[in-house]
What we know:
The complex is a heterodimer of chains A (399) and B (278). Chain A has 399 residues and is mainly α. Chain A contains 21 helices and two strands. Chain A has two domains: 43-145, no CATH class; 175-395, MetI-like fold, CATH 1.10.3720. Chain A is elongated and about 100 Å long. The longest helix of chain B has 36 residues, at 2-37. The radius of gyration of chain B is 24 Å and the shape is globular. The chains are: A mainly alpha (399), B mainly alpha (278).
Amino acid sequence: MDGTLKTVRLRAAVPVLPLVAFILVTFIAPLATMLVRSVYDPLVAGAMPETLFLLSEWDGKSIPREAVFEAAVRELLGARQARNLGRVVTRINRVQPGMRSVIMKSVRKLRRISGSDSWRDTLIDMDPAWGKAQTWQAIRRTGERFTMRHYLHALDLDRGPGGGIVRQKPERRIYMPLLGRTLAVSLSITALCLLLGYPVAYLIAHAPHRWTNLLLLLVLVPFWTSLLVRTTSWIVLLQTRGVINDALVALGLIAEENRIAMIYNMTGTVVAMTHVLLPFMVLPLYSVMRTIPPLYMNAAATLGASFPRAFWRVYWPQTQPGVFAGSLLVFILAIGYYITPELVGGRSGQLISNMIAYHMQQSLNWGLAAALSGILLLCVFVIYLIYDRVVGIERMKLG
Amino acid sequence: MATIRGRWENVGRLSYLIFCTAVLLFLVAPILVIVPLSFNVEPYFTFTEGMLALDPQAYSLRWYRSVFGDEQWLLAMVNSLTIGISATVLATTLGTLAALGLANPAMPRRSLAMGLLISPMITPVIISATGMFFFYSNLGLTQTHLGLILAHTALGTPFVVITVTATLAGFDPNLKRAAATLGAGPLRTFIRVQLPQIAPGVISGALFAFATSFDEVVTVLFMGGLDQRTIPRQMWVGIREQISPAILAVATFLITFSLLFMIIVEWLRRRGNAPAKA
Lengths: 399, 278
């Protein structure tokens, strides 16, 4: 009996397996690679194994012994030969700013020296930074194969001189304020969408039948329109020489020289993102409201309740599943938004995703990009769990 | 008393309708503004006096000509279609199959599987693209069409799974049993009985998957090379660097495209929701 049940269940799973395998390979494995990358960085450990081994016995305060210097010189020159030096130096420089010029300058000089009695004196002679403990601490930390430094960096934390974890100086805190801003902006956009979307969903759900389709189409047009097209529209409308400013000037409402800056700032991000995400609020609300019979509201009215009272006590509670579904969906989409803030947000309208893209494409600090992605992923996952609890993932519908 | 209340109700209703009209305008107007501007004879992004006076001289097809005469845009169109269609075929096949399995009550760990299959839709694209860049570059799949096809397939499958699952909810399992009693094998039952019933969901899902790929820019930016440029990538570059009304011409073209998609999907949904004819 147990055996046949097992066979039945296995056979039921067969059609699902190809897609499960496909998603595991093309999607989950990349996410896993990214998470590994956020804590694992073998580059420096591979390039300077002997230096790092010798440094592991160092007390962390005094100037290291001669053997450490000798190994460092050999391995840095070796890294240069292997065309690896740039990447090694970049990593050390991220932990201890200024190290790039120290190492590069020294390596350039070392190439001209054939030997030395004391590499320690030679190096310290080239740059006094070699005589400082923090230089060697930076090398030791960069050499950790498994490291929390990307996460510390992403959380605006740092290792203190004693090795303990301390907060960054206020002026160097970047990512936590940005994450806070992303959450705050997403929350405002969700609230805006609810404020604008609820009345419209109500209108569509309770309009006479011949109007329903037309009204629904008005919501579906932006839902289907390409995201880049919608973003372009907002640039056309909002820029200083754009349609809205031109119209305001033509109507004499503002002076030519007082054109309003509505784009390439936070206003641009909020307006364009609200436009993009509003259909995701209206559609779930509509599908819940459609199922609410007008009977209840009529009954409340007959019993003497005014419209606001009847609405608040009778109608609103019944729409709560839709409110939850729409709000969570909008919020989850908003916190990961990249394209719209990148194109219309300017400097002040950037969100956490833009920082991930920046570290992926410009600064090439991939470990940090991976750590920031990991943190964002955790945020999304938490909201997803709430969504699944409250709404149920299997009830997710499109349009 | 009653008249005062009635008047207030009218004012309330009127302002409510004005509010809703404003929101609906907010939704649609920005998109519609693009269309006339794409026929602007001048290289501006705003209405010229001639356009407002409806002077035919102020309108032209020059931006359409410049797009359709540009090799880069043409390459982008070919790439978008190649990648989009391949990803759609893959996503639709895998997604439909999976939805059929998920609809089976004997399916073990159903909600876990569903969560896994939906995850590409919930995960912010920037994260997916970051991960895919790391993983696919290890496999030498960056800067290849195949890499982008696989990425877009992954991003598109959740839509197929969701739409087909929704149609399957209305499928009467007795029809399958009836076919079996009449001697049809499982494959034949599927093709002749089940597929026609769930076809609207499958087609909707395919359109969603295609639209996802056709509009996707982040993975293309991260993983594609110059040979893999697609329409959204060209638009992205155009918006950021050499903004010209040619973009508005492409945008108008894309709007037409998506309207077409929307109408088909809505029509299919109506058909799918209508009670099946005996």
